[in-house]
Amino acid sequence: MKFSExxxxxxxxxxxxxxxxxxxxxxxxxxxxxxxKNTVTIMPEINISVHDGAxxxxxxxxxxxxxxxxxxxxxxxxxxFKGDFKVFEKYxxxxxxxxxxxxxxxxxxxxxxxxxxxxxxxxxxxxxxxxIRAFVNKVLSEHGTSIEETALKLLLDxxxxxxxxxxxxxxxxxMLRMNSVITIQDIKDNVPAGYDFKIYELSDAIAKSERxxxxxxxxxxxxxxxxxxxxxxxxxxxxxxxxxxxxTSGGVGELSKNLGVKEFAVSKYLAQSKKYSVKSLKGIVDKxxxxxxxxxxxxxxxxxxxxxxxxxxx
Length: 314
Hints:
By secondary structure, the protein is α/β, with parallel strands linked by helices. It has helices at about 5-10, 25-35, 45, 55-65, 90-95, 110-115, 130-140, 150-160, 165-175, 185-190, 195-205, 210-225, 230-245, 250-260, 265-275, 280-295, 300-314; strands at about 20, 50, 75-80, 100-105, 120-125, 145, 180. Helix 13 packs antiparallel against helix 16 (about 280-295).
């Protein structure tokens, strides 16, 4: 089930006994949990229990087996459980009909994957652009505000389509430009660009040999206290995806599945990969492997290696 289908499901259908929330957007996780909590209208302080990653499985099972108090069902939320999910297998085979279990797991690891058939999975990954546009328009209309198309596109690029960042920034922008229009300059002045956008911009500047822009982007990344080793890995991952897109046939959907990224990101990789030759992309990836080996063998510091990496590409 997609996140966009959840609210309707909870309001119009019989609840399942167990749900699994998975994905990469924190805003959607929090919104989904709010929807579930709203299903408990009678004494929620008693009929809703929340367990964090360190919780004892025995206590969670006790809550699941407990009857709700004057309510049609009890809600048990388990967030980031660090134990072995196998202990829940017996319960999931014969769940308490008056309890609803909600497990939050951004990544479905092997132990949980084996039990996934017992859950209704809710995908809280980044949503499509149509959903985002509807959300943005709703927020802006409440403030009598609108947004230029170029400004909206830049906002999506800066936030990499993450609803958490979009929701925070669109509220701020709507207040800033109440009864007016949000411009592209408003985005540049008020919305921090995410790492993914900066890496994309860095790659674009490298393709065009724009040395000053390259230097400015690197300085901005260093200013955010990003370790050189992490920065180098992000840049390498970006170029590896560009190479994959350059040498692999298939549609956006297939590439998206193979790379494990959203289709909007694949479209950007495809467009940017055309700015390089396959030979140059392979050379960049090979250079990374050389420097990575030098770092791990203690021949060179990560800071110097990253500067060499970028310098040699240009």
